[in-house]
Design brief:
By secondary structure, the chain is mainly alpha-helical. The chain folds into two domains: 28 residues, no CATH class; 92 residues, no CATH class. Helix content is 50%, strand content 0%. The chain has six helices and no strands. The longest helix has 18 residues. The chain starts with a helix and ends in a 5-residue tail after the last helix. The mean pLDDT is 85. It binds heme C. The site of heme C has 23 residues, from α5.
């Protein structure tokens, strides 16, 4: 810990500072608890409904397993399915936008796409 963290800081900075540090340094290759939690509550239900038949349960098309956040980050034959902070570069979103995925049934609606986009965007990008 650097000395600046131990120095008493006024109000909000004192509270938020250490939290921000945790966010920055807590981002490793493996998903943090916070990311995993968000995935479970917001994203997994959607993927379960529309994608898992082919990417996790019956099949694992293109080597992609969308059942877990780890699976998304590992990705399939073309590489990671998502890149934190970069929705437009994330293969998953690109394929959903082009309506290539899901290949069967109606394309995802604007709300569902917005949910995915914001989720990818919100996370702190890794360097
Ligand atoms: C009916 C089966 C089916 C469903 C449902 C489905 N996929 Fe796919 N998916 C495939 C197949 C087959 C491929 C490989 C061929 C291709 O790339 O078009 C693929 C490839 C992909 C890839 C590229 C993986 C790589 O590394 O090349 C992504 C990303 C993907 N799917 C995301 C999704 C998402 C997100 C959903 C749900 C919204 C979804 N898929 C639903 C069959 C499916």
């Amino acid at each position: 810990m650097s000395p600046s963290v131990n120095r008493p800081l006024p109000g909000i900075i004192g509270t938020v500072g250490p939290l921000l540090m945790m966010l920055f340094f807590g981002c490793a290759v493996t998903p943090s608890h916070r990311e995993a939690k968000r995935f479970e509550t917001e994203i997994a239900p959607l993927l379960h409904q529309r994608c898992l038949k082919c990417h996790g349960i019956e099949e694992r098309e293109a080597g992609l397993d969308l059942r877990t956040l780890r699976g998304l980050l590992r990705g399939g034959q073309s590489g990671p399915a998502i890149i934190w902070g970069k929705p437009e570069k994330s293969l998953l979103l690109k394929m959903v936008l082009k309506e290539e995925m899901p290949p069967k049934g109606p394309p995802l609606n604007a709300n569902e796409i917005g949910l995915l986009r914001r989720w990818i965007q919100r996370e702190i990008p890794r360097h």
